[in-house]
Amino acid sequence: MEADEWYKKGMAEKKSDEKKSSEKKVPGAVGADFKFENALKRLAEVVRLLERNDCELGEALKLFEEGVSLTRACHSKLSDAEKKIELLTKVSADGVETIPLGD
């Protein structure tokens, strides 16, 4: 195999691996099976692992990325719950006003 063919094959494999890793699901963070409590526990674990400061840079970046994903998913879930609470407590016919939860 010539060097040029070898390089092209290697780059194709690298792109395939990158695509596979980007398609990996973060535990508890995405999909219909999302569980806020599980995501929060995993986020705490990710923080603990990063604070230990004993993993390689590549692993630390993966953990950080997972933590950001978990944080966004949890924030979204909390925002949805806040909106639902505001809708449920709004009873304008009875004169009860919606009290926005603090921002």
What's the arrangement of secondary structure elements?
Elements: H1 3-22, H2 36-52, H3 57-89
Helix pairs in contact: 2-3
- Tally the helices: what do you get? 3
Poorly predicted ranges = 20-24
Q: Please identify the structural class as seen in this structure.
A: mainly alpha
Q: Count all strands and give the number.
A: 0
- The number of domains: 1
Distance between the termini: 62 Å
SS strand fraction:
under 5%
Mean pLDDT level: 77
Radius of gyration: 22 Å
Envelope shape = elongated
Keywords:
mainly alpha, elongated
Structural description of this entry:
This protein is mainly alpha-helical and 103 residues long. The protein has one domain (27-103). 68% of the residues lie in helices and 0% in strands. The protein is built from 3 helices and no strands. The protein has helices at residues 3-22, 36-52, 57-89. Helix 2 (36-52) runs antiparallel to helix 3. The protein is elongated and about 80 Å long. The N and C termini lie far apart (62 Å).
How would you summarize what this structure contains?
Helices cover 68% and strands 0% of the residues. It has three helices and no strands.
